[in-house]
Fold each of these.
Amino acid sequence: MGHYLRNRLLQAVVVILIIIVGNFILLNAVPGDLVDVLAGRGGDMDADLMASLRARFGLDDPLPIRLLDYIRNVLTGNLGYSWPHSQPVLDVVLQRLPATTLLVILSVITSVFIGTLTGVFAARKAHKLTDVILSMVVLVCYATPIFLTALALMLIFSVQLGWFPLSGLTTAGAEEGILATAADMGRHLVLPVVSLSLFYVAIYARLSRASMLQVLTQDYVRTARAKGVSERGVILGHALRNALLPVITMAGLQITELFGGAVLTETIFGLPGVGRLAYDAVFARNFPLLLGILIVCSFIIVIVNLLVDLLYMKLDPRVELTK
Amino acid sequence: MTLTRRQMLLSSLSTVALATLAGRPAWATIDPVGHEGGTLTFVISPSPQILTSAMTTAGAEQVVSAKISDSLFTYDFDMNIQPQLATSYDVSEDGKTVTFHLRQGVKWHDGTPFTSRDVAYTCMKVWKVLHGRGRTIFKDVTEVQTPDDHTAVFVMTAPSPGMLKSLAAQQTQLLPAHLYEGTDPMTNPYNLKPVGTGPFKFVSFVSGDNLVLEKNEDYWDAGKPHLDKLVFRFVSDPATVTAGLESGEFDLVNQSLLPKPDLPRLEASGKFDITTKGYEFQNEMQMIEFNLDDPVMSNPKVREALAYAIDKQWLVDNVFFGYGKVANTPLHYQLTQLYDETDVPRYDYDPMKAVKLLEEAGYKRGTLELTVDPLPYGEYQNMTANYLREAFRGIGVKLTVRNEDFAGFVKRVYTDRDFQFTVNLLTGGSDPTIGTHRTYWSKSFAKGVGFSNGSHYDSPEMDKILEAASAEMDEEKRIGLYHAFQKLAMTDLPVLPLVAVESVTVANKRVHNHTINAHGTYADFAEVWVDPKA
């Protein structure tokens, strides 16, 4: 186990190094740099100011030297400085991480829970009317683009009914206190989480339905029934545990995908998240910030993958962690 | 140079006029009649990255920071000077010394008194060094003398009438010297928790989400501001903005954030106050910049032909939904004192003439192929480029629209110079010396510098006019020089102005006084009040 962990962490370091070098080179091949964008936003800089800014931002050294400097800094825990924000990159990223983390974790939990429940229920009623109706609903959820769901939910529940706030993560300047803040964030997150979850509910429902149907035909299920285990016990204790494996795989993928893919939801609902920050950083050519986001996110992804592997082992004793 | 007696009289008159104004212009405002307090929610995009505009000209930074920090002046709708932290000023006979008399009893939000030291520090160490526009505006300033706490004397190598039109908080903001001196202004922590002299004090900032400001109880203009709290929300999705206005979650939206097709619906609902005023300090123009280094574009007949092929009114009506006016000169019509189209060559829509001109230039119908690069900022430049493709098809010119992202565009046009013409959006500013000059002045052509002289126009005659205008203290002579400028610019046609854009502010009807001068929603909001019942 310790051996396994050590190996995986070593792999992670190599992966992150590849991410840094690859992206560093790729990003610098893109036309235009931070100073071009800064000069362009106001439309009024002169050549001297641009040159002095390039020197300050360290953009005038040759690429290999900048890359080595950067790696050396990252190894000492320094992710660089985001000049437009007047702050270190790590601070900027950490300010934006909570919104995305909350959004991702809540929607993964919601979609796994509801999706699996729907799937199991549909599998129990396979090919009956309930199953057909559920399958149709699931298909609609699957086929609706997230931005459409988001706008529809927003128009109905915020604009028409006024039940939930339209955008943002907190009410600006609301009263302090952990409970009040949590409740406030909760209200702000309902619509984003629902719109992001609906698509994944569909995926988990289809996945767990298929998986459940397959598991239900296995010998050990028949054995369980034969020895008199209740239907509930068969489904939850025997079948579901095995049927969950593909769902867990998918959840692991979803978490990693969402860290980059929540841009749309973050934009529509005005959430101060990492996805939007990365998107803006690309257009601002703020590469230290972008690389910082990539590194932080790759750490998270490596850890999530590790957790998924461990969970696998827990659910299915046949899975062994070798090196 | 010396001033004539008339100008002396003018400048002394303005001193008197300013000195007699105790506080602010009262003519444009509606009294709050007991409506003190309340919160205003103002939605803008993108999220500002820092909270001062003393060293950046980005729009979001300007909007939010002008509520916290002041400058020397404000300007009314006709760009007349109004006092802010300077109560009056005098200009020396040779125009090279400007003395500002500063308001007394003003305190920074941390309680430290505001003095001439703050003015000297900000001008010499920040505006002149780090502010893109400031470097042009204050280039001739060699020293700011501080004979006493309430007098700041700007010593210059040449007279600069443009400077007096550019001293507003939206772009040349004063910073507290006691918190900035001896630090690197670009990394100073107070950029993110600003200390100003303005009507609102900083409370909290969540990048990408919101900024909260509260009433400054010790504001120098007693009895103001009226609002208790001012909340900025940063929302980048236009559909969310419209939805938020309709649900009442947002009170105020400015600039191009709103989708123009939504405006008629908002207007029809009767719940909103929609205005195009308050952008006199910006004056955006949609223009075509021809690359004169390109062999095809350097032919004046081709440029004229293309000019005749464009129905600018169509652009105003269909791309801008009526929020703009056909541009017949490079100056925005809102620069009322200088705009003049008498005897300026016109290029009214005439496709037959365009075809004829192209033939004279040696291009038979169907033989000319061109590429346009629309500025990727908002959607209007791309929409115009697509219209041009269809319009040019009518005169037998095949046009390809090339799309890139912002940084890519800037590099292609201003560094690589690998383009034929752009559809660009250029900010003229409060005075032609600020924005317009750099587009036409041969010495502002510099490879690698965004939004400089992109067409590489080089005319000694034009340089002479512009250089004379930037140092001319006599208003009437200045008007004459700019009239000559408008005629020459439209004769040589290095740049083809298309539309004088009107930006739009939409406010819930409960919001009052949001647009009372040339700064519009970029003003300090000391006068703004909300009606809690409406």
Amino acid sequence: MSIAVNMKKLTMVQAITEALKVVLEEDESVLVLGEDVGRNGGVFRATDGLFELFGDQRVMDTPLAESGLIGTSIGLAMNGYTPVVEIQFLGFIYPGFNQLITHATRIRTRTQSRYTVPLTIRVPYGAGVRAPEIHSDSTEALFTHIPGLKVVVPSTPHDAKGLLISSIKDPDPVLFLEPMKMYRTGKGDVPTGSYTIPLGKGYRRRNGEDVSLFAWGAMVKVAEEAAEKAAAKGVGCDVIDLRSLYPLDKELIAESVQKTGRAVIIHEAPSSGGVGSEVISIINDTSFLYMKSPIKKVTGYDAPVPLFTLEDDYLPDANKVLRAIEETVRF
Amino acid sequence: MDVTEQFPFIQLVNGEGKQLEENPSITVANAKRFYEQMTFSRMFDRKAVNLQRQGRIGTYAPFEGQEGAQIGSALALEDGDWMFPTYRDHAATAAFGHSLVNIFLYWKGCIEGCVPPEGKHIFPPSVPIASQILHATGTAWAEKKKGSDRVSLVYFGDGATSEGDFHEGLNFASVFQIPVVFFNQNNGYAISVPIERQMNTKTIAQKSLAYDMPGVRVDGNDVFAVYSETLKAVERARKGDGPTLIEAVTWRYGAHTTTDEPSKYRDQGESERRRQTDDPISRVEKYLKAEGSWDAEWEEELKKKSEKRLQLAVEEMEKTKKSDEGLIFDHVFGTDVWPVQEQKERFFHKESGK
């Protein structure tokens, strides 16, 4: 059987550039804004070549001011444009937090949809690339707690493109988190042209009967590695890439644990108050009587992400996850 | 050069109602228009304070004393322009065409009060200080990108100039030459903190130098001067000549909000003295009298008309006891998102007792 769609082998960061190119071509209202997104093509080259293709009225370098960038983009979004803002690292977004939490996400409610904010904020996040201090934060739970904001995290080049196009087309603010660790970790098949992946839908990366593993971003790969190790010991893991952290894919989470009766949640963010706790809440609401053992979390610690000599100690890895899998099976 | 010479205090009509220079904005017709709007605003403001005292609306932020700054600037705008008020700028929003009922509803705790009349670009009052400066800059940026000649005008107080968003907004507007008017009402106090604790500069207007944009310092209680300077700034913006910072020096007679007691932090005798010598409304009355154009019957009629208009708005506002419960959920997202839908369902079928 032949597949009509043309594929290209791309890294995640190339897939992101492709997505931006597609929407800039499709929709005149789309603007790309940020520090270094223009001539320099972004600090990770995510906007490489777009300035040359679309010009400085559509791909705009701005002053170095995160609140200013998000705040003025709110104004652009309320008045007919579709801004796609790049914040260079999640650890640098905090000066813009007020604009996000008191304005971008409330304007629809405050004005009964008279004004809306179709704004996408792209942000590299996460540890594992030996980055300098404050460049490795994984504070997604700060944002999933904000009503009116969708939070999306791809783990593959294919999903990065489709999810970014969907995020930009979404009528509301979306925080699009890009796992830095995955930017250039291998290439994957990415369809050429435009396609979307629905927000709020996870994806089963591996089918298994014994334990459900839930992860997103760079931790999906860790979960897959752990699943491989578990398989060698005769334990089958159902690996679920959540892809959207708000809203979470309740159906898929429930379906998976109702099959396995066991769950391990993996995130690199600190344990307390992390999105993992929300996954547990969904399992509790939907599947309490299906569970055969307590749900485990393998996470970063309740400590600031350490400088890079300690980041491997801080991050979940396949062995830590495997141990948790074994504990849920042995319970 | 001393900064106060570089940014002189612009006055066209002084506290005695005496015209100080020729200016096309100083006409009897304008004086009557300003007087009517300012008088109405003051009646609105006092009505709102009374309604709060009677428990018919919630906490309210009065503006009495600042009518000149607000009316003079609001009337310089045209349809299609954008206005970004704070929570103290209802004289401006009402003059620009906001619904009085909605302004009252907002203070009554009903979110639908934030919605401006169809076709009017009036943003809901911004509560976090200075944050709206960026929205005004962004919407005006959009107008520029579309090639229109519409502009944004944003209100903010003296305290707001200490915030980072003040700098970021003025800087973006300056870098991209965005058609926005930054209208500062310097009333001397951010709740209790006097301006000397906000800044070491003698003026707010001089901050424009840092952005290489025109900056003017105007007597905010001289509605003619405010109108004239705002018109100039708006025209500059419309022509593509970029942003302007206007500092309108004024004074709030009363409290920061109805929960505040100003005598704790300042001599309220000062408010009384200013009421006698520097009131923006009395100034226009004195001007009209000096011109021989004061008409007591006109004023009487105007007050009756205003009273009626207010009464109708209050009656309309009081028809709404509370917002529809659906409004908790209905505009969080533009598409169905299951946690919100599920919680709405739960609320209506289990928790609301309905």
